């Protein structure tokens, strides 16, 4: 059964993930992909996500898919039971995943029971297509990205950081532009969406 935990800001939903991990008996090993932060000036949220996993007792294995060969990336993902994909630039992330031919493997692993945790960019790429996010992210950093088709694991389009600095304007612009065209699911920094099979639930961290 498909199991996804998607959020805007992982550190902001720490207690939700703690409950989720306990309920799902996720074990204590996570494969952590920080790649989308490579082209961002600010990367503090990646450190905070690492700290959140550490606080919850997880052993973190970091895999920067832009810095390793395709075989290594595929082998690590194939062996993983819990995959976390960080925030950052969504288009750059998708480019690097496609360069290493990882999308179909991630889909196969999700179908086989791997739990997928996505923060911001990592949540957005679960949609059918990520082009709608061009108002929030700079598309030009992904010069080798030929198409914007995502994982197509959900029938909605995550809109992270609604009402949250520094994304107040770009998130609202995205909502105004695409709300009539796409099934947008907006999240603030204390909300997460849980996907279990066909069931979708939005929870808020108190």
Automatic annotation (TrEMBL):
Pfam families assigned: Peptidase_S51
Transmembrane region(s): none
GO molecular function: serine-type peptidase activity
Documented EC number(s): 3.4.21.-
Keyword Hydrolase: yes
UniProt key word Protease: yes
This protein's UniProt keywords: Hydrolase, Protease, Serine protease
One Gene Ontology biological process: proteolysis
InterPro entries per record: Class_I_gatase-like (IPR029062), Peptidase_S51 (IPR005320)
Family classification: Belongs to the peptidase S51 family.
Record's protein name: Peptidase
């Amino acid at each position: 059964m498909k199991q996804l935990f998607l959020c805007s800001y992982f550190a902001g939903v720490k207690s939700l993930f703690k409950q989720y991990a306990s309920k799902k008996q996720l074990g204590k090993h996570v494969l952590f992909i920080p790649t989308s932060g490579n082209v961002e000036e600010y990367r503090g949220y990646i450190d905070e996500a690492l700290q959140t996993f550490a606080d919850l007792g997880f052993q973190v294995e970091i895999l920067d898919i832009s810095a390793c060969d395709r075989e290594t990336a595929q082998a690590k993902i194939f062996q993983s039971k819990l995959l976390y994909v960080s925030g950052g630039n969504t288009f750059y992330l998708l480019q690097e995943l496609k360069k290493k031919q990882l999308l179909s493997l991630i889909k196969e692993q999700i179908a086989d029971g791997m739990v997928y945790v996505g923060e911001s960019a990592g949540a957005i790429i679960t949609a059918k297509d990520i082009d709608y996010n061009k108002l929030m992210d700079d598309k030009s950093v992904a010069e080798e990205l030929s198409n914007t088709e995502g994982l197509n694991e959900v029938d909605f389009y995550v809109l992270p950081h609604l009402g949250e600095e520094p994304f107040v304007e770009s998130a609202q612009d995205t909502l105004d532009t695409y709300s009539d065209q796409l099934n947008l699911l907006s999240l603030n920094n204390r909300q997460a969406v849980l996907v279990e099979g066909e069931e979708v639930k939005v929870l808020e961290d108190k």
